[in-house]
Write a structure and sequence with these properties.
Length: 311
């Protein structure tokens, strides 16, 4: 009977040692990977080239802090995946450091993939760009089209490029809500709301079919603060009167009609951009400012610069 079981015993022992061998190899591979990763982080140093440009090319929207778990951030870091969006703290920190760094001669602001942000977020970054420019270092901005959010940052640049089919779209701020009173009436649902004071609009979507007069006054007040902040930042960056920027937003259709629909020429004549040119012309201008060949421009990205200049 034991002789009949011998092949199975040998097979069990072979599988046992095979399993141990595979587990040991996997453990060794993980340890080697961790050692190599730690050695890379400890000993590899990014160097900031002399006479370089700081490249700020935000992809996605601005954020103050990420909501992902630390496990997700660790996996993204190991895979080399960049987070969707850009940290305001990191962006401002890099711009402020570069403003006093003798190795950085200019800032290249590429807003082609910029997703925007709130007025307070944009104002924070715009102020950092203003500080950079105040140190006598130029900012070159480019985008195929400028949304209202992107243009607030671009307006802080000395040189703003846009292709001939591009548009600077400034429309102002607005708000609207969904009102369910008509639906609730059809469903036979009655909502009872009690409020103290005049400007109490939280329950209006359930009790009205449209925005009340008091809610209109309330919303107009904070929208005006947003709009005034926007106008002041754009006017300060471009050296224009705030009324001119406001007129551009209010009368954009009429102004476009006067220029036969040529939005780029309109933006140039209004002083919103400095030159009509594609990305190739933009690269040529940056290279000329650095006195370097266009194919070999010395530049360093935002994250690499932060890593290279971290105390």
């Amino acid at each position: 009977m034991r002789i009949l079981l011998l092949p199975f015993i040998w097979l069990g022992r072979a599988l046992h040692w095979l399993r141990i061998g595979i587990l040991n190899l996997l453990t060794l591979a993980i340890l080697l990977f961790l050692i190599a990763f730690l050695a890379y982080k400890l000993f590899y140093q990014v160097a900031v080239p002399d006479d370089a440009a700081l490249l700020v090319a935000p992809q996605g929207s601005l954020f103050y802090s990420r909501n992902e778990s630390w496990q997700t951030r660790a996996l993204d870091h190991l895979d080399g995946r960049k987070p969707a969006g850009v940290s305001i703290r990191q962006m401002v920190q890099a711009i402020d450091r570069a403003s006093t760094d003798a190795r950085i001669h200019l800032l290249e602001l590429n807003l082609s993939d910029f997703g925007g942000g709130s007025i307070t977020q944009l104002d924070t970054v715009a102020r950092a760009l203003q500080r950079f420019r105040a140190h006598g270092k130029p900012i070159y901005a480019y985008a195929p089209d400028y949304s209202q959010e992107a243009y607030l940052l671009a307006a802080q640049a000395n040189h703003i490029y846009m292709p001939k089919l591009g548009t600077v779209l400034i429309t102002g701020f607005s708000t609207r809500g969904l009102y369910f009173k008509g639906l609730l009436d059809k469903l036979g649902i009655t909502v009872y709301s009690f409020r103290q004071g005049k400007y109490k609009s939280a329950m209006e979507p359930l009790t009205l079919t449209h925005m009340s007069k008091s809610a209109q006054v309330e919303n107009a007040a904070w929208l005006k603060v947003w709009w005034d902040t926007y106008l002041q930042n754009v006017a300060k960056g471009r050296g224009l009167k705030a009324t001119l920027v406001s007129r551009y937003a209010d009368q954009l259709p009429e102004l476009l009609e006067n220029y036969q629909g040529n939005a780029a020429e309109l933006a140039l004549k209004q002083g919103l951009i400095t030159r009509i040119g594609d990305e190739h012309a933009f690269r040529q201008a940056v290279a000329a400012a650095l006195k370097q060949p266009p194919k070999h421009i010395k530049k360093i990205g935002l994250h690499a610069y932060l890593a290279a200049t971290e105390p």
